[in-house]
Amino acid sequence: MKNLVFLAAACALLTACASTPERRIAKNPELFESFPADVQENVRAGIIRIGYDRDMVRLALGDPNRISTRQREGEVLEIWTYTGVYYTSETYRVRDFGRFSTMEQNIIVDRTRQHPYDRMRVEFRDGYVEAVEQVQR
Q1: What is the pTM (predicted TM-score) of this model?
Q2: Where in the sequence is the domain holding 118, given as residue range(s)?
Q3: How far apart are the C-alpha atoms of 120 and 74, rounded to whole Å?
Q4: Is the separation of the CB atoms in 80 and 121 below 8 Å?
Q5: What pairs with residue 129 in β-bridges?
Q6: d(CA 5, CA 112)
Q7: CA 46, CA 2: separation in Å to the nearest integer?
Q8: Which among 4, 11, 73, 93 has the fewest CB atoms less than 10 Å away?
């Protein structure tokens, strides 16, 4: 079981490392060079600001995990959601008398739980960032 948890964590880490701002910039150098110098610096650091367009956000943060829309006052807002996962681990004892045993046996169980959460929401109006909501963990 521990090997399976380790394997899952390693795969998640490799997947996360495969998509960094530097790798996305390397795939789109002409687009990146078209940004102003201060935007380039922020995109390299994975930071976005109000007023950035979709291309700037995509290079800084990557593709969103979910895209949704919200209608408000006669306009449609686009919301990009980036998700994260955190893990908790617990150890507990299970008492087992067994089917044919008269002696009590203690079994120790380690359990790791995966908790997905929305770590960031980016709201666009007319193609530009209007609001950023970020969870502090």
Answers
A1: 0.71
A2: 2-134
A3: 25
A4: yes
A5: 124
A6: 8
A7: 33
A8: 73
Q: 25 and 42 in contact (C-beta within 8 Å)?
A: no
- State in Å, rounded, how far the first CA of the chain is from the last one: 27
Nearest to 79 by CA among 44, 45, 54, 56: 54
Judge whether residue 102 has pLDDT over 70: no
Token pair of 15, please? 């997947």
Domain count, the chain: 1
Least confident of 39-48, 90-99, 128-137: 90-99
| Tokens 């299970």 belong to residue | 94
- Tokens 């009590």 sit on residue: 104
Q: What is the pLDDT of residue 3?
A: 53
Coil vs helix vs strand at 57: helix
Cβ atoms 119, 62 nearer than 8 A: no
Backbone angles phi, psi at 53, to 5 degrees: -90, 180
pLDDT band at 91 (very low <50, low <70, confident <90, very high): confident
